[in-house]
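STRUCTURE:
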């Protein structure tokens, strides 16, 4: 019995997860260095985050080290870094408040939608503990094509803005409008696309029996 329980517990202390955790920890330090005008350290940690983001995914695929925890903390680390960078750059005046609001608003909206679809797809009984049990059927959110491009462009804009002293201002201004347009387009794609969200489990309504005549 003990051996069976032990084998059922996934190993969360994998190299990809440790790399992801380190990226999550590094995120607030990037914001700190930006707020204190230490651009060298900010760019160094940003580069570290980019490299580890690539490495943890590659290692997980190459050596089959994917875990449920990893599927949760990996996007969490990415979103945390994006949010902290966006807020820090907006506070310093390097990023317009209106654009920062659009970027953060899109992510908040997607986050709320993810919570909603997770809740409605959760098989009964719906409890807080079961909500966070990711082995249970859930909803699968598939990034739309424009959303993937938008994420790349947002990261590129944030990186260029962090390195703003060496980037021509006119080029950066035009890039901001491109990101704004793709951010709006990306948000709309999740609303109007039929393939963006797939419910993996459809809870049966109370009193409904399989095979009942209409």
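SEQUENCE:
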């Amino acid at each position: 019995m003990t051996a069976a329980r032990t084998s059922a517990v996934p190993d969360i202390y994998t190299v990809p997860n440790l790399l992801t955790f380190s990226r999550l920890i590094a995120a607030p330090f990037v914001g700190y260095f930006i707020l204190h005008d230490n651009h060298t350290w900010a760019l160094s940690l940003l580069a570290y985050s980019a490299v580890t983001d690539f490495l943890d995914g590659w290692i997980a695929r190459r050596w089959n080290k994917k875990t449920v925890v990893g599927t949760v903390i990996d996007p969490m680390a990415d979103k945390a870094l994006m949010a902290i960078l966006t807020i820090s750059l907006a506070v310093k005046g390097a990023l317009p408040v209106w654009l920062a609001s659009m970027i953060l608003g899109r992510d908040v909206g997607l986050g709320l939608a993810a919570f909603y679809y997770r809740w409605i797809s959760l098989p009964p009984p719906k409890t807080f503990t079961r909500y966070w049990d990711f082995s249970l059927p859930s909803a699968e959110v598939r990034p739309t094509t424009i959303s993937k491009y938008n994420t790349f462009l947002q990261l590129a804009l944030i990186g260029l803005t962090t390195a703003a002293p060496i980037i021509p201002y006119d080029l950066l201004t035009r890039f901001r409008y491109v990101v704004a347009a793709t951010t709006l387009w990306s948000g709309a794609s999740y609303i109007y696309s039929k393939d963006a969200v797939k419910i993996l489990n459809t809870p049966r309504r109370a009193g409904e029996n399989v095979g009942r005549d209409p």
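REMARK: Confidence is low (pLDDT under 50) at residues 1-9, 202-214.
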